[in-house]
Amino acid sequence: MSFDHPVVVEPLPGPRLPAPVVQPTGVHETLADMQDSDTPPLADDTPIARAAQAAVTAMARVGDPLPRPAQTRVMVVANQKGGVGKTTTTVNLAASLALHGARVLVIDLDPQGNASTALGIDHHAEVPSIYDVLVEGKPLADVVQPVIDVEGLFCCPATIDLAGAEIELVSLVARESRLQRAIAAYEQPLDYILIDCPPSLGLLTVNAMVAGREVLIPIQCEYYALEGLGQLLRNVDLVRAHLNPDLHVSTILLTMYDARTRLASQVAEEVRNHFTSEVLRTSIPRSVRVSEAPSYGQTVLTYDPGSSGALSYLEAAREIALRNAEAEAVAAEAGYATGAATGVYAQQPRMIDQHSTMEGNR
Ligand SMILES: Nc1ncnc2c1ncn2[C@@H]1O[C@H](COP(=O)(O)OP(=O)(O)OP(=O)(O)O)[C@@H](O)[C@H]1O
Ligand SMILES: [Mg+2]
């Protein structure tokens, strides 16, 4: 078990988390502060002992079922900026949700095949993959594989063939909606489908945006974090206007947060100011264990379940599930049936205009 960085988590509504504790040092709250009030007092009241206790508490929640969405939530993990944590977020959130009892499919839509690697799924050139689904019209069911370490988690791998798909798709019928059609024809019951996009806004990402209702944007807490975000949001708007009226940005997750740097907290603050309701309270800390896990073909949830990275992803998953349950409850009360999280979030003013302004101000 390692405690490489404190887990940054802001107070989350819900019965299981106590009110945040203000640190005497003024630094961010850690999972150590999340001990339930009925947790027995610690024999050794040091930061490490508190962190250990918090890890035990958080791990005890694994297996606690989270509220399941009324219908499958298809979440597109996108940001055309490279290396911001899209793949890491996709696989670790997916594993976290599955560990909480959900049935989750990860679709690797990046020719790099990083999500397949991280889930321990073979993706050499001969393996049936998402390329066959998109270009050859193969059923999704023929290429999906179970992830060995995590019950309820499945992966549709990507092979290097996918690198040519952007060009091959151009001449195909319904080139933007091929993934959406494949998902619609997939009959296995699922709570979540998480689509790991490549770092571009080409036809592969458009296919993901046509297939999903929700966009999840991981934002790395560093100086250029917001650059290009306006373009991504404009693309979401375009797809919504022309191809998928349900599409919206439902979730923003701050990644690689280094609580020791002022820059990280400044970036986090700026993002939170502009996207008040979309940003998860939980941020993912920079953590060596998170970056090591893929080289063992594992998510950090199985590689080092007690690490700060694992605990943060578990907490982020919890937040994603609870927010949606709240949105569904509000929608049900308002008396109209919704498609999952769209109920509340889709009614919010569109953020793109605000963000364009923000970009213009930079
Ligand atoms: N919380 C974290 N702590 C430490 N390293 C991390 C963390 N999250 C991601 N990384 C590392 O940062 C690098 C980029 O992450 P990742 O591959 O998830 O980004 P990406 O957005 O999917 O990249 P690409 O655009 O190339 O697909 C990887 O080496 C990953 O291990
Ligand atoms: Mg990636």
Strand content: 5-15%
Outline the low-pLDDT stretches.
Answer: 1-5, 9-42, 339-362
Helix content: 25-40%
Give the full name of the CATH homologous superfamily.
Answer: P-loop containing nucleotide triphosphate hydrolases
Identify every distinct bound molecule in the structure, by name, code or SMILES.
Answer: adenosine-5'-triphosphate, magnesium ion
- Coarse morphology: globular
Which class of secondary structure composition applies to the elements? Answer: alpha/beta
Sheet having the most strands: 7 strands, mixed
Order of helices and strands: HEHEHHEEHHEHEHEHHHHHH
What number is the mean pLDDT?
Answer: 82
Query: What is the CATH third-level topology name?
Result: Rossmann fold
* Number of helices, counting only DSSP H or I runs of 4 residues or more: 14
The tally of beta strands, per DSSP, is 7
Give the strand order of the largest sheet, numbering strands 1, 2, ... along the chain. 3-4-2-5-1-6-7
Using the CA coordinates, give the radius of gyration.
20 Å
Instruction: Domain count, please report it.
Output: 1
| The first-level CATH class name | Alpha Beta
Function: May play a role in septum formation.
Organism: Streptacidiphilus jiangxiensis
Domain AAA: 73-248
Family: Belongs to the ParA family.
